[in-house]
Amino acid sequence: MGRLCLLVMMLVLLNGYCCLGCWKQERIALLQIKVDINFPNGTSLRRWVDNETANCCDWKEIECSVDTGRVIQISLNETRDWSLGDWYFNASLFLPFKELRTLHLSGNSLVGWVENEGFERLSMLMNLQVVDLSYNNFNISILSRLLRLPSLKYLSLQSNNLEGSTHFNSSERLSRLNNLEVLDLSLNNLNGSILSFLSLSNLEILHLSYNWSDNSTLSFAGGLSSLKSLDLSANKIKGTVDMRELDALTNLEVLDLSSNEIDSLVTPKDTKILKKLKVLRLRGLKKISRNLLQSLGAFSSLKTLNLGLNTFEGTITAEGMIPKSLSLMTSLVLLDVSSNNLTGMLPRWLGNMTYLLGIVMSKNHLQGSIPTQFCKLDILEFVDLSENNLSGSIPSCLNRSRITHVYLNKNRLEGPLTRAFYNNSSLVTLDLSHNNLTDTIPKWIGSLSALSILLLKGNQFKGRIPIQLCHLNRLSIMDFSHNNLFGPIPHCLGKINMGSTTGQSNAMWSIGESYIGGGYLVSYMESTSLIGLHSSSLMILNEDPLSEVQLQVEFTTKRNSLLYNGSILNYMSGIDLSCNQLAGEIPLELGNLSDIRALNLSHNNLTGTIPVTLSKLKQVESLDLSYNNLNGRIPTQLIELNALAVFSVAHNNLSGALPERKAQFGTFEETSYEGNPLLCGPPLHKSCTKNRATSPMRNVSNGEVEEDGFVDMDAFYITFVVSYIIVLLGIAIVLYINPYWRQAWFYFIEVYITSR
């Protein structure tokens, strides 16, 4: 019994020893991979050092098992320098990793493999489940090598040089990859018959976009009985598509036929796919017919319908191009008909589609008012009606608690901002810019506790900026420019966090554009974790149809109006109060906005000096204070703003020497300072006076001691008064001493009085 306990203890200690760092033979193998990927003279993977004490599990490209300490993931995406030329895969370098699960080799100029060292040798790695070979230069022969890896669950050959499918014979069908669940063959030159070699009974996600597949592709899909998502966008599918050809795909829930030349769908009532399909994408079709639109009503189980970026024209009425038959899709959750040439009124029957979470009808020519029927949509979360010709007021009944993102910008909405969103604790984005809204900004704006993006640019708002705005602790982007606001800038704005929108990202639906099947790939990556593979039973559909919606915000910074969308939006924060009638001094408290990236106070009536506290805006990239009535000197402390790319104080009343031309201030040209005649120093073509006043008087209006301009006004007034008194005394003394001058003086006075 004692020996058994001792043996157990030794095994525990041995296991613990292995977990202290990576295995020696695996560290040596990784260093050999480094040499190979850098051949002949590359310098990548600098942290991979040949040191006995080095722990390869700490290298960012490597992940090790917490139980055994062995390498389970190698991520070498875009590691080889492209200037080194082609790279040939050597399987023997990867065989020491007995527990390897995930291998990423995307974007490394791979064109083939060393003789007898092809991918088929990786069959010895029984745990290998994820292989990413995207953005390389393999030809179609790679498939015959990979089919010998039966443990694979995820395979990406996106953007290689795969062409045709004639290389295969019946013995080389990919059916041997019977565990494969995700296959990405997009951005190649494959034709439709490739599907005849994909008899993969467990495949759930197939991405074939940007290939040469034609209508015959659909007839080859019979061997994919487990398929849930099929992406055939941007291929050569033309004319009429008979949906019955997909009936063999009994589990299909997502179908993407976007960017083809389809003009109609055949949807007989006995078509099985009509009852199962949840997501249908038909974006960017060359042309689209009325019959196609009417046939969509047959998809009774559809949750997401995306018809954006098409070329059809017509009115959105019961008799027009968007027929009322769409209202029969009672399960619809997301309707996207954006970027078309649609005209007419907003359909009132949308108010009867009670499951709608998102409505996207932006970039059309829709007219009229927003129907009050929209108020029936109790669970509505996303509304984008931007860039239309909508008029009237915003319905006050839209204050639904679940609405999260509202885009009504670039319309003709008018009147005061009603209580439409009053006390909404879920609203994250509110874009009402470029309308004709009037009256004051309501005080209830401070009740929108979750608000992160507030855009009121280009309206006719007047009055003061409400101090209740300072209650919006999550605000990251605020644009009130081009209105008629007056009064001072609230000091309490400096208390707002004004960080990026990263903290709000969970409330946003944007997941970028690199996904397969409506978020399936994202769901797969999270559940199986291409970072550390978990149980495949967690690989389920992404049930959120709003994952297709990508947030977009237009904001002016660095003198340009830019669109921020997707993940980039997570890093942006800014305030734009330009082109108003704001007065008073710039609050010192604005210096507390340490995470802000853009601040624009230009074209107002601001007075006083530039606060030295603005030097604390360490993240600011654009600072515009031009076209105001600011005076005094430009604080020299501003040269500490190392992120500053655009700076302007043009057309003010500033004086004194410009800050030293170093760091970012060495890049600013004369246009940043023009319109200030009392400024001097480079880059202006005006040198500063060498003999400046040496008066010890200081300007302390900002709580900071700094020198004033060229002339000390207090000293000037004292000197003038003393000189005046001396002159008068001098005249009196001369008249008292010299009688002749005294007589002449009185005679002159007498003549002057009598002559009037």
From TrEMBL:
Annotated signal sequence range: 1-21
Residue ranges occupied by any Leucine-rich repeat-containing N-terminal plant-type domain in the UniProt entry: 25-65
PROSITE patterns: LRR (PS51450)
InterPro entries xref list: Leu-rich_rpt, Leu-rich_rpt_typical-subtyp, LRR_dom_sf, LRR_N_plant-typ, RLP_Defense_Trigger
GO biological process entries: defense response; response to other organism
Sorted UniProt keywords: Cell membrane, Glycoprotein, Leucine-rich repeat, Membrane, Repeat, Signal, Transmembrane, Transmembrane helix
Residue ranges of the TM segments: 715-737
Gene Ontology CC annotation, any one: plasma membrane
Protein name (database record): Leucine-rich repeat-containing N-terminal plant-type domain-containing protein
Membrane-topology annotation of the record: Single-pass type I membrane protein
Family, per entry: Belongs to the RLP family.
Organism lineage string: Eukaryota, Viridiplantae, Streptophyta, Embryophyta, Tracheophyta
Compartments where found: Cell membrane
